[in-house]
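Session log. Operator J.P. requested a structure for one protein chain; no other inputs attached. Running the standard single-chain path with token output.
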Amino acid sequence: MHAPTEGGNKRVGRILLAEDNPINQAVAKNLLTQRGYELEIANNGREAVERYHTETFDIILMDIQMPEMGGFEATAAIRDLQAARGMRIPIIA
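Structure written below.
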């Protein structure tokens, strides 16, 4: 994952944020997009797993306590998908 570099040569990283709190979503979106990252938001763990299954990300920022599926369960499900694909990306709680 690469943040924008000096001189206008931008290499943007894609981040999946799994967070159910709208205020936290807004703060993270503001901070990360200002730094040039592309941010996708999942409102719970189940959405995070679904998004990971269909899209490509460089890193996942995972809340632990969320409705429908918590962060630990979502991380386990994503790790299972990654094992099947033979890859692994960072998941930060």
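Operator note: The first strand starts at residue 14 and ends at 18.
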